[in-house]
Design brief:
Layout (H helix, E strand, L loop, with lengths): L4 H28 L10 H56 L6 H22 L2 E2 L2 E2 L11 E5 L5 E5 L2 E2 L16 E2 L20 E2 L4 H5 L6 E5 L9 E8 L2 E8 L4 H15 L7 E3 L4 E4 L5 E5 L9 E5 L1 E7 L9 E8 L2 E8 L4 H16 L9 E3 L4 E4 L4 E4 L12 E5 L5 H13 L3 H54 L3 H25 L10
Antiparallel strand pairs: 1-2, 3-4, 4-5, 6-7, 8-12, 8-14, 9-10, 9-13, 11-12, 15-19, 15-21, 16-17, 16-20, 18-19
Helix pairs in contact: 1-9, 2-3, 2-7, 2-8, 3-7, 7-8
C-alpha cells in the first residue's frame, strides 16, 4: 500500500497542531493559575467550584453584615455608657436639691434648670446618628426620634417619633418598633404564614428607644379645655390607653355637659371591644374607669384643633381628701386659679357627697358662676379641683394659725421613662414639691441599674460578633483552600509539562525536514 505525500502531510500537521495546542494551553494555565477556563473542560470540578464560589460570596456578605453590626453595637454601648454617667449626675443633682435643707424657690429653679439640661443631653445621646440613621430610632431613618416640647406652663413632654413616651406601657406599640435583623450565616428562617423572620436566626441591628429608656406611667388622666370646643364643630383626637390607640371623632355640644356626653359616648363606642369604660366630666377630664393612664394628642387628620393637657407623671391636679374630713368641722382651703387666689371656708358634711356640695358652694362664692349657673371652679368626685382652661393650685400655708386646712395632695403618678421622669422632677422642684422630687431618686437609681444590665447585654452581643467574625475568617480561609484545590493548577507540575510540550513541539519542527517535501526554492542559490 502506497502512502502518499498528502497523507503524510496531514498527519504531520495534525500532530504539530495538537502539540502546539497542548503547549499553548499549558502556558495559559501557568499565566492564569487555573486548571480550566471553561466548565466543559472539567464539568464535575466546575460544579464543585461554583458551589465554593457561592459560599465565598455569602461569607463576604455575612462578614460585611457583622462589621456593620459591630459598629452599631459599639456605638450603642458607648451611648449607653454616656446615659449611665448622665443618670448618675441626675441622681446627685436630685439628692443635693432634696436633702440639703430648706431652700428658696430661686435655688430650686436652678436645680430644675440643671435637670432640664440633663434631660436634653439624654435626648441628644439617644438621637446619636450612625450612617444617617439614629441608633435608638428603631426601624426608622429619622435622625431625631426623641424630642422635648414645652407647653404654655413650661411643662416638658418627651415624644418618640411624635408619640409621647408615656402614651404606651409597651415599647412594641410605638412607631417603627419593627426589629431589623442582619443575616450572619445562622440559617435565616422565615415564617411562611406571617413572613416574619425568626429572630433566633439573625442578629438584631436596630434598637427601640422606649425599650431602653422606658415608657408608660403608673397612672394618669387627660384634660380637654372645654373652652376650645366650638358647638357643632367636629373634632378628632388620638387616645392612648392600656397599649391601645384609637382615633376618636366627636362633635362639640351646645354646652360643656353636652360636649362631655358626646366625647364619652364616642370613647365608649370605640373602646367597646376592648372592654374599657370611660368617663368625661364637664371640665373635660377623661378617665379610664377600667384602670390605666389616658393620653391624648390632636389627630394628624384633625381639621379643628383643641387644647388639652395630659396629667401623667408630675400632674397639676390637686385632690382634696374627702374621706378624711370630719363631719361638722370647719376647714380652710387656699385656692389659686390662674392669677386669682382665694381663701375659702366650708363645713364638712355627713358624707363625701355633702362635703363636695359644701366645697362647691364655697368655690362658687369665691370665684363666681357662669350664665348657666355652673361654677367656674369645680370639684370632682375624686376631690380634684379644676377650672376650665386654667391651672388650679391648692396652697397649704394658712394666714390664720387657728384655721384648719383641709387635707389635700397633688395627684401623683410617675413616668417609667427616665428622660420624662427627669423633666417631672424638675417641674416638682419648681413648685417646691420636694416629696415628689425625692421619690424620683430611687426610680433614677433603678433606671441606671437597668441601663447597666443593657450595657452588659450589648457587651455579650459584641463578644458574639467578634466570635462570628473569627468564624467567618476561618471559613473564608478553608473555602479559598478548597477553591485552590479545584481551580488552581500545580505550577511546578505544569511547568514541567510545558517543558515537555516545548521539547515535543521543537522535535516536530525538526522532523519537518524529513516530512515536508523540498521545493524548487531549496535548490535555488
Amino acid at each position: 500500500m502506497r502512502v502518499t505525500n498528502n497523507t503524510i502531510m496531514r498527519g504531520y500537521h495534525r500532530n504539530l497542531n495538537r502539540v502546539g495546542n497542548l503547549k499553548s494551553d499549558s502556558m495559559d494555565k501557568i499565566m492564569s493559575n487555573r486548571k480550566f477556563n471553561r466548565a466543559s473542560e472539567s464539568p464535575i470540578d466546575a460544579a464543585k467550584a461554583l458551589n465554593v464560589r457561592k459560599s465565598l460570596y455569602y461569607t463576604d456578605q455575612y462578614t460585611e453584615n457583622l462589621k456593620v453590626a459591630d459598629k452599631f453595637y459599639t456605638e450603642a454601648e458607648t451611648s449607653l455608657l454616656g446615659v449611665s454617667s448622665k443618670l448618675q449626675e441626675i441622681r446627685e443633682e436630685l439628692v443635693a436639691a432634696c436633702n440639703s435643707g430648706i431652700k428658696s424657690i430661686d435655688e430650686y429653679n436652678v436645680y430644675a434648670q440643671h435637670l432640664e439640661i440633663f434631660a436634653t443631653q439624654l435626648c441628644e445621646i439617644f438621637n446619636t446618628d450612625s450612617a444617617g440613621r439614629a441608633i435608638f430610632g428603631g426601624s426608622s431613618d429619622d435622625g431625631q426620634p426623641f424630642v422635648i416640647s414645652y407647653d404654655d406652663n413650661g411643662y416638658g413632654t418627651v415624644t418618640y417619633h411624635n408619640v409621647p413616651v408615656n402614651a404606651y406601657n409597651s415599647y412594641l406599640n410605638f412607631p417603627y418598633s419593627d426589629v431589623i435583623l442582619a443575616d450572619i450565616g445562622l440559617g435565616l428562617s422565615v415564617n411562611q404564614k406571617s413572613h416574619d423572620i425568626d429572630p433566633q436566626t439573625g442578629l438584631r441591628i436596630s434598637f427601640n428607644g422606649p425599650e431602653v429608656s422606658g415608657c408608660g406611667t403608673d397612672g394618669g388622666i387627660a384634660d380637654i379645655d372645654m373652652s376650645s370646643v366650638m358647638p357643632g364643630k367636629e373634632y378628632s383626637i388620638d387616645v392612648y390607653t392600656n397599649n391601645i390607640k384609637k382615633t376618636i371623632v366627636f362633635k362639640g355640644g351646645k354646652d360643656a355637659a353636652e360636649t362631655a356626653a358626646n366625647l364619652e359616648d364616642a370613647l365608649n363606642k370605640e373602646f367597646l371591644k376592648s372592654h374599657m369604660k370611660f368617663e368625661v366630666s364637664e371640665q373635660g377630664v377623661i378617665t379610664n374607669k377600667s384602670g390605666g393612664n389616658v393620653c391624648i394628642i390632636n389627630s394628624k387628620n384633625a381639621v379643628n384643633k383643641l387644647s388639652y393637657s395630659n396629667n401623667y407623671g408630675y400632674s397639676n391636679r390637686f385632690n382634696v381628701d374627702l374621706e378624711s374630713l370630719e363631719e361638722g368641722r370647719e376647714y380652710t382651703l387656699k385656692v389659686a386659679v390662674g392669677d386669682d387666689t382665694q381663701i375659702i371656708k366650708f363645713t364638712a358634711g355627713a358624707d363625701e357627697t355633702e362635703s363636695m356640695k359644701a366645697i362647691q358652694e364655697a368655690l362658687d362664692n369665691a370665684f363666681g358662676v357662669d350664665d348657666a349657673g355652673n361654677g367656674l371652679v369645680h370639684i370632682a368626685e375624686d376631690g380634684a379641683i379644676t377650672s376650665e382652661g386654667k391651672t388650679v393650685k391648692l396652697i397649704g400655708d394658712a394666714e390664720n394659725e387657728n384655721s384648719v386646712y383641709a387635707p389635700f395632695e397633688r395627684e401623683k403618678s410617675f413616668s417609667n421613662n427616665y428622660i420624662q421622669l427627669t423633666l417631672d422632677a424638675a417641674a416638682a422642684l419648681r413648685n417646691g414639691d420636694i416629696e415628689y422630687a425625692n421619690a424620683c431618686i430611687d426610680k433614677i437609681v433603678k433606671a441606671n441599674e437597668a441601663t447597666l444590665v443593657e450595657i452588659a447585654n450589648l457587651g455579650s452581643n459584641e463578644d458574639f460578633i467578634s466570635f462570628s467574625l473569627d468564624r467567618m475568617t476561618t471559613r473564608e480561609t478553608n473555602l479559598k483552600e478548597r477553591q485552590d484545590e479545584l481551580e488552581a493548577c500545580d505550577l511546578e507540575e505544569e511547568s514541567t509539562r510545558l517543558k515537555q510540550y516545548i521539547a515535543m513541539y521543537n522535535a516536530c519542527l525538526q522532523l519537518a525536514t524529513e516530512v515536508v517535501p523540498q521545493s524548487i526554492f531549496n535548490y535555488m542559490r
